[in-house]
Amino acid sequence: MTEHKVKPGSDLTAVARTAFLDYAPELHRYIARQMRHSEHTADLTQQIFERFLQLPNLETVRNAQAFLYGIASNLVRELRYREARSVVTFDSDAVEAISQRLTHSDRNELAERLSLQQDLQWALSKLPAAHRAVLLLVKRDGLTYQEVAQQTGLALTTVTNYVSEARAKMKMLLKSRIG
Length: 179
Description:
Elements: H1 12-34, H2 41-53, H3 64-85, H4 92-101, H5 104-126, H6 129-139, H7 145-152, H8 156-178
Helix pairs in contact: 1-2, 1-3, 2-3, 5-8, 6-8, 7-8
């Protein structure tokens, strides 16, 4: 994937068309990894380019790819905020019926998952910030080492080392905590 620099005096429509052709599939995958509900992915991808086209002065954009990813991150954040603030309605009788169907083993499995999640959050908090960021980009966000290197400006070998070191430290921390 080549990085496109926006040149002063560029035609907005041509730049947007090129950016769409080059980055839309990649941005679509990025949003799909970020969102819990896949029905929003296509809409958010379209909104990225709508916002891009609304720029009053294209010459302020130096790197189209980085700018588009910034828009994508903002859109994902905005949607998550709206979802968190939206009113949730539910049928209390249905919830009661489902909770009564939970078996003892289901409850134990749920408790184990919650405990594991807490242990992972604790271990992640003990990692150096750079190691944690790189590990999360690879494991949670599904980026390749090369993509992480491009986004963070780190060398590929540094990304590889950070991931290896973070995994080793996580393993050590979790062994000491869990036993």
